[in-house]
Design a protein that fits this description.
The structure holds two protein chains of two kinds. Chain A contains seven helices and 35 strands. By secondary structure, chain A is mainly β. Chain A has one domain: Maltoporin, Chain A, CATH 2.40.170. In chain A, the strands form six sheets. Chain A has a 22-stranded antiparallel barrel. Chain A is globular and about 90 Å long. By secondary structure, chain B is an alpha/beta fold. Chain B has a single domain (about 50-215), classed as Rossmann fold, CATH 3.40.50. Chain B contains six helices and twelve strands. Chain B has a ten-stranded mixed beta sheet. In chain B, strand 7 (about 165-170) and strand 8 (about 170-175) form a beta hairpin. The chains are: A mainly beta, B alpha/beta. At the A-B interface, helix 1, helix 2, helix 3, strand 19 and strand 20 of A face helix 1, helix 2, helix 3 and strand 8 of B.
Chain lengths: ~675, ~220
């Protein structure tokens, strides 16, 4: 079995190898007119040159390239958009982007991509990076997108969102997409900056940053911030409306706190980054059978991320990049359980979950332009999870599990202009993720740009996600959950067609059609034989979808986009729609200056159709309207913004995962935020 | 269902032969591609990656020549136009493509580096963003001389420079300090002024803005 599997993988690899070899053997002169040729631009008028799209993206190919030449569907969200729309966290940014939606269970935010967001999934099917440094931890492989995200949103320069499989470059977790959060540096954020925010539900956040550039080589940025939110005073859950449980009211236990430190120094080709974050959340939902309305149910997420990056241009036009990083992620959860016998007085015991992860990563990338039309990249990655520790205990220890593992990978990618208007971007990566498990994942994209304004991309790729140690080993002596060490990696195959058209100087159209199929899907289930939760490779899912977008920007500062997503994701075995998968998502975003380029009014409307819950019910559809007035440099160096979220005060809820007694979780009504930022 | 999964697991042990094959395959790949990287390039000149932004900017500099008249043109000079790139060259090899062109039967010379001795010899001086901190030393060297200064350093046009490239959303535009251009004795076509985002006078006041299409006479 495994041998034939290997043969199959090998034939794929040979195919790519052949492709790349052909590209080397083909004569360079016949293909000398690549997109990089300056002559085509010198023939244009200066007005035409001013209309050329130079928006670039790094994450899609691991080097900077034009968005229209990237081998995937790409969205870039800039700091300017974050300010104009008043986004408070990554989750709010992502839900305003086509093909994505978010669920919140009043503890964590979960990202849905292309119709896929399984209850019980800790965002491990998307890779999240900060400046190219992967932060998915070694126990849950989670991507933190809520207030537990380690960097304050004000420090973000831009967010690159890559849809589709990217395991050919990034390995595990790059399953449905990759999100790379690129932070500012001292050269951009010069001086001392103070920011304060207040809002409804006891929301407040303070930040102090200092950035500076010294000479041409040295730039540094420090930042510290503190956030706290009281959350909702009273949350009603009908499932707990049983008299003894406070009439189903969770009273003032929705608090959220976070503190974050950020340090970045760049000296010439060397960059060092150190990030610390601590986030604590009261959990009001009494999951895992804990006592309802108890203020001692908390979770803590803590990150320590250190990264060193060296970039160097070797002679003969070869670029080298080397990264070394060391990371710690700690997750603590306190669960209040009532251990009393029925009828006795309550006997509340705090049961504690510990997950501690430490890992070291090293990456080496080389990129080389073989000739004008051929660009080759290769790289290797090594990751050592030196500590993957999980424990569950109260007066006795139920689970104490310490592990370590290592993985390594090797990838190569080639970008070849077959003709001036036809580009092939092909890549393949071999991953050895320990215990004799390995996988090969290719991606190939054919990009045809008949004119400067049109591009058509055809993409095929596979991706994988290895099971994490939480899914494989977590067990608590048959109280709620048991392990499954036999779990195998999930696999996905995706076909995609992306069509991008510039309709006029200000308007761009985007159409994307895709089909994917997931095999060996790891699903949290209840084993009927013992009633325990367990992760199993029992799922198989497929989806077809359509994404449409019109994007408008003019020189007067007006910008906006309108998008519609159709995503039909089904369970292959039952043929039914996946849970927590809205069939339609639509968005309308518009931002326009009110007063020269100083004051902006930005409005977004996000429509999400009903979603199926675990029990087979449906949550209602929702129309979320957020509005922000943002004043830039109003009084000298003062920026002020005022935002209203859920302006229509829409009542809506998101499907809950199986550790909940609730079928769905109610979301916030109307709320506001006032923010002021002053640069000294 | 559980049986099915554990059934699979029995066979996934690596096996020595399999492991050897895998290792061989990886080593083969690594060797092949390392050799490609280490071997000398097919072309002599550096093939470093240049972002499209700078290829377009190089073409824009070339196009701007058509809107500019230098005082030495009045003596029907046939001397070549000197384009100097001061500091780290962001255009890479693309800037040299301009040397193949001619303008008004004048040739074009391109000079790069940060050891350019006589900057006043340049017709066009592009100052790289690597020289941000040295602007205060550089610009006085060409003050009042017929040197068209261009840069993408932020607020260049308000810091004594003439043409500042800026990126608006996804495109490249520019701001002109017309006062500085006039001071240098350079003539600039009104067509170039009209397509610029903003035109400043000597004192940094806006005399033309694409934004409001407004003009204010001095």
């Amino acid at each position: 079995m495994s041998l034939s599997l290997f043969r199959k993988k090998r034939s794929e690899a040979v195919f790519f190898l052949a492709l790349i070899l052909i590209s080397f053997l083909s004569p360079g002169t016949a293909l000398s007119e690549g997109s990089g040729d300056i002559r085509q631009y010198m023939e244009m008028s200066i007005e035409e040159l001013m209309q050329i799209d130079v928006e670039s993206v790094y994450t899609a190919s691991r080097y900077i390239q034009n968005v229209s030449e990237a081998p995937s569907s790409v969205t870039v969200v800039t700091a300017e958009e974050i300010k104009r729309y008043g986004y408070r966290n990554l989750a709010e940014v992502l839900q305003s982007v086509k093909g994505m939606y978010v669920s919140y269970d009043r503890n964590y935010h979960y990202l849905g991509i292309r119709g896929f967001s399984r209850p019980g999934d800790y965002n491990s099917r998307v890779l999240l990076m900060i400046d190219g440094h992967r932060i998915n931890d070694g126990v849950f492989n989670t991507s933190p997108i809520g207030t537990e995200f380690p960097v304050n949103i004000d420090l973000i320069r831009k967010i690159e969102i890559i849809r589709g499989p990217s395991s050919s470059l990034y390995g595990t977790n790059a399953f449905f997409g990759v999100i790379n959060v690129i932070t500012s540096d001292g050269a951009e954020k010069e001086g001392l900056q103070a920011s304060g925010e207040i809002g409804s539900n006891g929301y407040n956040q303070e930040r102090l940053s200092y950035g500076g550039q010294y000479g041409g080589n040295l730039a540094l940025l420090f930042s510290g911030s503190y956030y706290s939110g009281d959350g909702r005073d009273k949350l009603y859950f009908s499932e707990f409306d049983r008299g003894v449980t406070n009439g189903g009211l969770a009273d003032d236990i929705d608090h959220d706190w976070a503190k974050r430190l950020f340090f970045k120094v760049r000296y010439g080709e060397l960059a060092l980054q150190a990030i610390y974050s601590y986030r604590k959340k009261n959990v009001p939902t009494a999951t895992f059978g804990t006592v309802f309305n108890n203020p001692n149910y908390n979770t803590v997420d803590e990150y320590y991320l250190f990264g060193l990056k060296y970039r160097h241009r070797l002679s003969r036009g070869t670029d080298l990049s080397l990264r070394i990083n060391f990371n710690i992620y700690n997750n603590y959860a306190d669960y209040p359980y009532d251990y009393s016998d029925k009828g006795d007085l309550t006997d509340i015991v705090i049961n504690r979950d510990i997950a501690e992860s430490e890992w070291i990563g090293a990456e080496l990338d080389l990129t080389r332009e073989i000739n004008e039309t051929n660009k080759l990249s290769m790289g290797g990655e090594f990751r050592d999870d030196i500590r993957q520790y999980q424990k569950n205990y109260d007066f006795k220890t139920y689970f104490d599990d310490s592990r370590s593992s290592s993985s390594w990978a090797f990838y190569l990618q080639d970008e070849i202009f077959l003709r001036r208007d036809i580009l092939i971007n092909a890549g393949v990566r071999y991953d050895d993720y320990g215990k004799g498990n390995d996988t090969i994942n290719p991606r190939i994209a054919l990009i045809w740009s008949p004119t400067e304004t049109t591009s058509l991309k055809l993409v095929y790729g596979t991706a994988f996600r290895k099971p994490n140690v939480y899914e494989m080993y977590y067990a608590d002596e048959e109280m709620t959950q048991k392990g499954n060490p036999d779990l195998q990696a999930e696999k996905i195959g995706t076909y995609e067609m992306v069509f991008e058209q510039k309709l006029n100087d200000n308007l761009r159209g985007h159409v994307s059609l895709y089909h994917y199929r997931v095999k060996n899907l790891i699903v949290l289930e209840t084993d009927p034989s013992d009633g325990l939760l367990v992760y199993r490779n029992s799922g198989e899912a497929k989806a077809k979808g359509l994404e449409l977008e019109l994007d408008y920007r003019n020189d007067q500062g007006v910008s906006g986009r309108i998008f519609y997503t159709y995503q039909d994701a089904t369970d292959v075995q039952t043929g039914e729609r996946l849970t927590n998968s809205p069939l339609h998502v639509g968005g309308l975003l518009l931002s326009s200056p009110l007063l020269k380029k100083r004051l902006f009014l930005s409005t977004e409307l996000i429509y999400t159709s009903r979603r199926k819950t675990l029990s087979g019910n449906w949550t209602g559809d929702s129309t979320l309207v957020n509005m922000t007035v943002y004043g830039k440099g109003l009084l000298k160096n003062l920026d002020i913004s005022f935002s209203v979220y859920n302006l229509l005060n829409q009542r809506y809820s998101h499907p809950a995962s199986s550790e909940h007694l609730q079928d769905s979780i109610v979301q916030d009504g109307r709320s506001f935020r006032l923010k002021a930022t002053y640069t000294f | 269902m559980i049986e099915r999964i554990s059934g699979h697991e029995e066979n996934t042990g690596p096996g020595l032969a399999n492991l050897a094959k895998r290792s061989f395959f990886s080593v083969f790949l690594a060797t092949l591609f390392l050799s490609i990287f280490i071997s000398p390039s097919a072309h002599g000149r550096d093939k470093e990656y240049v972002p499209k932004e700078y290829i377009v900017k190089a073409a824009m500099i070339y196009k701007m020549l058509g809107f500019i008249t230098w005082p030495d043109a009045e003596g029907t000079s046939k001397n070549p136009i000197n384009i100097c790139v001061y500091g780290k060259n962001p255009f890479g090899r693309y800037i040299y493509a301009l040397e193949a062109e001619r303008f008004d039967s004048r040739g074009i010379n391109v000079r790069t580096g940060s050891r350019l001795e006589d900057l006043s010899d340049c017709h066009v001086l592009f100052i790289s963003s690597s020289e941000k901190d040295r602007l205060g030393n550089l610009l006085p060297q060409v003050e009042g001389k017929p040197v068209l200064t261009i840069s993408d350093i932020k607020d260049f046009s308000l810091s004594g420079g003439m043409i500042e490239f800026i990126k608006t959303d996804r495109r490249i535009a520019f701001i002109i300090n017309y006062g500085k251009v006039l001071d240098a004795g350079i003539r600039i076509s009104s067509r170039l002024l009209k397509i610029s985002i903003k035109v400043y006078d000597r004192d940094g006041r806006v005399i033309w803005s694409q934004n409001g299409k407004k003009k204010r006479s001095n």
